[in-house]
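dumping this here before i forget
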Amino acid sequence: MRGEVTVRILGVDAPETKKPGYTVGCWGPEAARFATDTLLNQPVQLVTDPTQDRVDRYGRTLAYVVKVDGWNFSVEAARAGVVHSYVYNDRPVVKATEIAAAETHARDAGTGLWGAPCNGNTDSVSEIAVAPPAPAPAPPGGDVYYKNCRAAWAAGAAPLRTGDAGYRSPLDADGDGIACEVRPN
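structure:
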């Protein structure tokens, strides 16, 4: 097979970097750089696995990527700590044991995604799920609103006096006309 082919590399799963609507997974850019650094402009062979289909439901070729000297991307990426070993649909690939051993070596050494800051967690989440919450509405007639005294202190506005923007009686615990006069811990 020559030319351009979209491949789902067998036995491993890399952190997300380009999934529309999702965050970049921890160690995603480093995993992409590893792939580029080790495979770009290199002659490779796509090797299928008898335990797996030849293409997935997205039309990607399912294969190992192997250099002419036998260097297997799945094994070496796991050893470098840039991917997780991966078993799809409870059907391990032929190289699953070798890939898992390489991952264990990286995990034990705290290499790549197994060290800080990821510590093995490369989850990518929906950008909708991480959108900041909507700001609290301002009370009628006012354009400054502090949810609580901690927010007023954080904004550098406390203590608040009667008539100050953002003053409201629920923040004035002792009712003396001065709200948030005691800084919260």
